[in-house]
Known about the structure:
Low-confidence stretches: 164-171
Strand content: 15-25%
Number of domains: 1
Number of strands: 5
Shape: globular
CATH architecture: 3-Layer(aba) Sandwich
Order of helices and strands: HEHEHHHEHEE
CATH class: Alpha Beta
CATH superfamily: Phosphoglycerate mutase-like
Number of helices: 6
Structural class: alpha/beta
Oligomer: single chain
Largest sheet: 3 strands, parallel
Distance between the termini: 21 Å
Radius of gyration: 16 Å
Amino acid sequence: MAASVAEQLASRPVTAVYTSPIRRCRETARILSETWGVKPVVLAGLTEADYGRWSGRSLESLARLKAWQQLMASPARFRFPEGETLEEVRARAVATIEELADRHRNDEIAVVTHADVIRVLVGHYLGAPLDLIHRLDIRPVGVSVVELGRDGTVRVPTVNAGPGLEAGRWH
Length: 171
């Protein structure tokens, strides 16, 4: 899937690729990076949410928990047991993206991260409250495009496009 997306995006003038430190993202970033002849850069701010005691559990087993229903109903007020809140995830991810935007003012870049991180980022740039982020359907190797203008403008022309997409600008 990553190779297919890389092929679709090959004509984009991407100058840098950043990735979560988690292996599945690093592998995807490596495939994408080869397209543009750049080396992926690992950034801790792009890592998956810290799910605490929920880490490694199946969604099926989690969905049976009362706490899961709380997460789905009110994600802005939920803390993963011994882990992060989605507000904490959003704060670190937005800070990372804003730093990258400042560093790459005139460049297109690619960022490889995780579904919940993408949800909070896209939601943030759309101005959506955290309680609505589960409305965003983010799938593996989907492409979401956020354009951060030098004048402070924000556009989100693409959310979760897959192979066969016509890519917008990556920032």
